[in-house]
């Protein structure tokens, strides 16, 4: 049943992406704020398909921690899931993403039209300066900057691997950072087409105020994110029908906590 539902969802999900890229083309001729609701509609429709076809629901905790105006969202990255699901949580978000994604036909055009923030990973210093300038403009416009502090997808329960970019942008923008923990990697694992039924939980943690020294900031961010993420993974492992691998991940987390 998981194989069948996963195959059906994947067909519908990727077909809908292709259709939406064409049908939403009028967004290119509209102001960004007018066209943005079409992107949110696509994300919400994708979550609806995921629930109806694959049996994956969503639970959001900590909405009261979301501040007003512009801020940085530092989220765990375990799956493709959060690359669209997080768009539905904030009023005017923008992703920091690989510059190569902007080169993709049609999709890349949408990222530029919606003023996503590209970064050239091959040119470290120049990339940081360009990213910072774009991010500062977004914050001034009251937008929310979505960034994955580990840079790339990591398996659920993996050892943390935070990059310097989040420290740099925190120092430069001098705005709150909102940690967002999740357990999506249990239900939409990377490098497989299988989608396992259950509930993806997003835990929005209290924001970290600007002005901390870099080491203190990283310690606060990692402590908040990793503790909350481990809690979500342990909760999923205790469910009546946990997704494959959840109990093994829980055992590794428990072992890690002993050291």
Automatic annotation (TrEMBL):
* Keywords on record: Acyltransferase, Membrane, Transferase, Transmembrane, Transmembrane helix
Q: Name one GO biological process term.
A: phosphatidic acid biosynthetic process
Checking Pfam families in the record gives: Acyltransferase
**Transmembrane segment boundaries:** 7-29
What are the coiled-coil residue ranges?
A: none
- GO terms assigned for molecular function: 1-acylglycerol-3-phosphate O-acyltransferase activity
InterPro entries linked to this entry: Plipid/glycerol_acylTrfase
**What top-level branch of life does the organism fall under?**
Bacteria
Q: Where is the Phospholipid/glycerol acyltransferase domain?
A: 71-185
- Give, as in the UniProt entry, the pathway in which the protein acts: Lipid metabolism
Question: Which PANTHER family does this entry report, sorted A to Z?
Answer: 1-ACYL-SN-GLYCEROL-3-PHOSPHATE ACYLTRANSFERASE
| Name of this protein | 1-acyl-sn-glycerol-3-phosphate acyltransferase
